[in-house]
Amino acid sequence: QVQLVESGGGVVQPGGSLRLSCAASGFSLTNYGMRWVRQAPGKGLEWVASIRRDGSKNNYADSVKGRFTISRDTSKNTLHLQMNSLRPEDTAVYYCAKGGTTGTCYFDYWGQGSLVTVSS
Amino acid sequence: QTVVTQEPSFSVSPGGTVTLTCGLSSGSVSTSHYPSWYQQTPGQAPRTLIYTTNTRSSGVPDRFSGSILGNKAALTITGAQADDESDYYCVLYMGGGIWVFGGGTKLTVL
């Protein structure tokens, strides 16, 4: 069965960096697009970044463009989110999500989330 | 900037029917936005309910249904139950690998 397990969250100072990982099992990252979605405390969901199944193109929300990088390690079937120049407003639970089959454009399975706190 | 709109809150009686909507600040929602819906309870990850407008995700009861109503996407819950009390989010695909979530609707069953 599909499982997504995030790790790497924690407390970081403003301006610092953090890398989140999402270990996938039950499917191959080369067959599905993957996304990161975040949720600030008490707020709604926000799409952050996406990567295509062939790894050819990454996309980012304007709020993180130029600071965050989505990538994957297909040998380990693991998705990453490198977060640089972190700001207090980046404080959130970060979820990785698996895309559906081609042409469905939705978030199929979700990880349990990893909390990132940006604070001095 | 594209804004996806949802009712902030809604209330339904047990056994009743409720329709939550998902609109665009400018323009109409269509099937080309591949609207999908997610249910979330406090402290939990979202659960996928509906995708590509009206396809139920695996294991989702058939009292949840999706549609396009007028210029909005809609999620209808028929025969609401107490454990349907949750936050509901829609998301629209804007093309080019970009999605926009609505602000969510807090559904109360009482």
| Number of helices, counting only DSSP H or I runs of 4 residues or more of chain A | 0
Please tell me the overall pLDDT of chain A.
Answer: 96
Tally of strands of chain A: 11
Helical fraction of chain B equals under 10%
C-alpha end-to-end distance of chain A: 40 Å
Assembly category: heterodimer
* Rg over C-alpha atoms of chain A, rounded to the nearest angstrom: 13 Å
Derived from helix and strand composition plus strand pairing, the structural class of chain A reads mainly beta
SS-based class of chain B? mainly beta
The major pleated sheet of chain A works out as: 7 strands, mixed
Query: Are there runs of chain A of 5+ residues with pLDDT below 50, and where?
Result: none
Shape annotation of chain A: globular
Description:
The complex is a heterodimer of chains A (120) and B (110). With 120 residues, chain A is mostly beta strands. Chain A is 0% helix and 51% strand. Chain A has strands spanning 3-7, 10-12, 18-25, 34-39, 45-51, 58-60, 68-73, 78-83, 92-99, 107-110, 114-118. Chain A starts with a strand and ends with a strand. The mean pLDDT of chain A is 96. By secondary structure, chain B is mainly beta. In chain B, the strands form two sheets. In chain B, strands 2, 4, 5, 6, 9, 10 and 11 form a seven-stranded mixed beta sheet that branches. In chain B, strands 1-3-8-7 form a four-stranded antiparallel beta sheet, with no helix packed on it. The chains are: A mainly beta (120), B mainly beta (110). The interface between A and B is medium-sized, with 26 and 26 residues.
